Amino acid sequence: MELRMYLFAVICFVLLLMSGCGAEARMTTSACGSGAVATMAPNTLTGMTTDRKNFSAAKTGLLSPNRILNIAHRGASGYAPEHTLASYQKAKELDGDYLEIDLQMTKDCTLVAMHDEDVSRTTNSDGKVSDLSLDAIEALDAGTWFNDEYPYQAESAFSQLTVPTLEEVIDTFGSEVNYYIETKTPSEEPAMVDTLLRILQKHHLVGEDVPSGKVIIQSFSKNSLLEVHQKEPSIPLIQLIHFRKKAMLTDPEVDEIKSYAVGIGANYESLSKEFVGELRNDGLLIHPYTVNEPADMKRLIDWGVTGIFTNYPDRLHDVVDGMEGGG
Ligand code: G3P
Ligand code: CA
User: Fold this and answer.
1) What is the pLDDT of residues 62-102, one digit of tens each?
2) Comparing 49-53, 139-143, 313-317, which segment has the lowest mean pLDDT?
3) Is residue 265 part of a domain?
4) Are 38 and 154 in contact (CB under 8 A)?
5) Residue 5: is its pLDDT beyond 60?
6) How many Å separate Cα 222 from the centre of its chain?
7) Ligand 1 contact, 82 CB (< 6 A)
8) Do 202 and 298 belong to one domain?
9) Are residues 11 and 68 in the same domain?
10) What domain count does the chain have?
11) Could you tell me the residue range of the domain that residue 192 belongs to?
């Protein structure tokens, strides 16, 4: 009897300890949210207050409204297969200010660089990323599709390319580059933000000593951005919006966006000179996507955009250089 009581007490003690560890954790609902995946409490990464203290830094440096950020969309994806290390290497060589990376999460909870939820467009297989293990995804050919689709840009080495994990991209390029990261379909992957923040923390890409704008996080999902803002308010956020018609936002909508984001990213065809001017007057950055033709780049810069997503970073540099030279 005494032994049973003793064992009961030990088990209770262990359970108590485990529940104490959960004070800052919650279980999420996806497979990737179970078990070891715990949600960080707000501000555990930097110990910052919930004030958006770094937003004053948006007036200088990378986030200055006076510069035109050159955002290499999926890497220099006009020249190499999107979201591969080759595409990001090319973007670096072409002096893109940012490597743009879309995120998907594998069945075994690893973040990989991929735009689509399904691997069929950009690899030699099919199936949803969330149904495939990392091993299965890493075995795919992520380059031959590009050689087939763009024979004038084809390189035999591209057929050896694989789908990189986010950490692989960061391990390769480190802090020499800046990252503009998009949480894709975050509502289906509740652990995505936590996993992303842990990776950024591990690689010292967030925090007090990191220049503001070293990493920008973007999403079409307001909830995803609010989660980032709550947990790591030092990271500048861009609210992506796809306007079906002419871009328009009410004053309350602008105020709402300004409460958590430094700007918006929008489909460039929807924009007007008036809209861009109003957003700039409201103190928001504006980054149109995806702009590949020099005439469009020039028009948007004339209107006052503060950065452009492009598959051709070299073209954007040429346009900006030409305009600065009075061209
Ligand atoms: O992130 C900006 C732009 O990339 C959004 O469109 O579909 O290319 O991710 P998408
Ligand atoms: Ca994107």
Assistant:
1) 999 999 999 999 999 999 999 999 999 999 999 999 999 99
2) 49-53
3) yes
4) no
5) no
6) 13
7) no
8) yes
9) no
10) 2
11) 52-324
